[in-house]
Design goal:
By secondary structure, the chain is of the alpha+beta class. The chain has 11 helices and 5 strands; from the N terminus they run H-E-E-H-H-E-H-H-H-H-H-E-E-H-H-H.
Length: 297
């Protein structure tokens, strides 16, 4: 065999072995082979934008009560000072009922006091409703806190000097918000009073002195407020009811009649009841302007 032919056979055998090795060798991924495309990611919903809270409003200023348009109550006047040497007037106190009634009911009042008005209206008729049993006597206690009370008391006493106390007191209690001096003079004129005489009496310091003396006497006994009542000396401060006053009067009338049945006079029996009620304060009461009516028969 020729050498050339042998060489060809060897080449062919080598090529066969090479091809067989390629066919039997494990397959490996070519480094240049494209990697499989990644799966597409699921769509992601956009995240909602965070809500921005509006800034908190500034705290409201505290509510302030405005009094720009509210009526301003004027302060009470300074305490009245009497001229030197002034003595309380000796005028009789306004009263209803017989002087020898077994019970003397003192009504200590202030024309500017609303509760005094409620007490005055029913009590004005008690002497008529209990005839022969009770004498109702009006006394003054113009409180310093009421700026027009003292002038109203003086005006009422000036009217009393012309026999018009009841009419003037009715007007004063019904017009408690109009007790300034101009209104007092206007009321006196409307009641038909002699105005020259009224002005003179109204300006008489002894009338104001009298009103203050009665009020001071009541306060010294413990009746600082108005209205207050002394029923044969039995003290009642404040207004409960008309029926309560009537019951007190009835009890006192029975007690006095029991004493007069032993021979005491009505005057002595009433004073005895005063001492029974007021005890250590009885003599101070009997010496005060409140007790003038107890000293008479």
């Amino acid at each position: 065999m020729k050498l050339q032919t042998v060489l060809v056979l060897l080449v062919l055998v080598a090529a066969g072995f090479f091809a067989l090795g390629r066919l039997t060798a494990p397959r490996s991924e070519s480094p240049t082979q494209a990697a499989p495309a990644p799966q597409a990611a699921a769509p992601v919903a956009p995240r909602p934008a965070p809500q921005v809270q509006p800034p908190a409003p500034p705290p409201a200023a505290p509510e302030v009560f405005r009094v720009d348009n509210a009526p301003v109550r004027p302060p009470p006047p300074p305490p009245w000072t009497p001229p030197p040497g002034t003595q309380p007037a000796k005028d009789p106190s306004p009263s209803k009922g017989p002087v020898d009634a077994p019970v003397i009911l003192l009504e200590v009042s202030d024309f500017q006091c609303p509760v005094c008005r409620r007490a005055y209206e029913p009590l004005r008729a008690i002497a008529d409703q209990m005839p022969g049993t009770v004498r109702l006597v009006f006394k003054h206690n113009p409180l310093d806190m009421h700026r027009n009370a003292l002038n109203a008391a003086a005006a009422a006493m000036a009217a009393a000097r012309q026999g018009k106390f009841d009419a003037f007191a009715d007007w004063a209690f019904q017009n408690q918000s109009s007790l300034d001096e101009t209104s007092l003079l206007s009321a006196a004129q409307s009641l038909g009073l002699d105005m020259d005489r009224f002005r003179k009496d109204y300006n008489d310091p002894s009338l104001r002195m009298r009103a203050k003396a009665e009020g001071n006497a009541a306060a010294s006994l413990g009746a600082q407020g108005t209205p207050s009542f002394f029923i044969n000396g039995q003290m009642q401060v404040g207004w409960a009811s008309y029926e309560a006053i009537v019951q007190m009067v009835q009890r006192e009338a029975e007690a006095v009649r029991g004493l007069t049945a032993t021979g005491m006079s009505v005057r002595e029996a009433r004073i005895q009841r005063v001492r029974s009620h007021l005890k250590d304060q009885a003599e101070a009461f009997l010496a005060s302007p409140l007790a003038v009516e107890f000293q008479k028969p």
